[in-house]
Amino acid sequence: IAYNANTDPSAFQLSIATLKPGVWPVYKFDMHKGQYLALCQRGGVVTVIRDGKGEDTGMFGINIHRGGENSTSSLGCQTLPRNQFDAVPDGFIDTAKKLAIKYFGKNYRSKKDYTYVLLEYKKPAVAAPDENIQS
Q1: For the segment 69-122, what is each residue's pLDDT rounded down to a tens digit?
Q2: What is the torsion angle, in degrees rounded to the nearest 10, for the CA atoms of residue 110, residue 92, residue 32 and residue 46?
């Protein structure tokens, strides 16, 4: 299963956070803003890149949650479109929960930490023509 996800904040403002690509073993199943199940940064620190300020490490609540109808609904979190996040039976959170229960049982929410890996996509560089190749 593949999902569309977003790391872009909903608005631009000085020092807004974007999660730095890396391996982050700090996520737990918990309620996002007390409203619905999401993967929340509760198990440790992450490093973010802040516009105009550089890197910053700490507990910032960089969660993985559903986005809004017309925006990412994020100030630094990782978001997925609502229809992909909430869908049953194959939405992101439903699939993540089922896998967590499969491997860790009914107490999956009390598991120490889940790891999130954020990779940075870099468009492949176009190779310059080799001047030594003759046609």
Answers
A1: 777 788 889 999 999 999 999 999 999 999 999 999 999 999 889 999 999 888
A2: 70
21-60: buried (b, 16+ CB within 10 Å) or exposed (e) per residue?
A: eeebebbbbeebeeeebbbbbebeebbbeeeeeeeeeeeb
Q: Work out the number of other CB atoms within 10 angstroms of the CB of residue 132.
A: 5
Rounded CA gap, 50 and 103, in Å? 36
User: Distance between CA 18 and CA 16 in Å, rounded?
Assistant: 7
The structure's pTM equals 0.84
Tokens describing residue 102: 């499969």
* Strand residue runs (E) in the chain: 17-19, 22-32, 36-41, 46-50, 54-58, 64-66, 78-80, 114-118
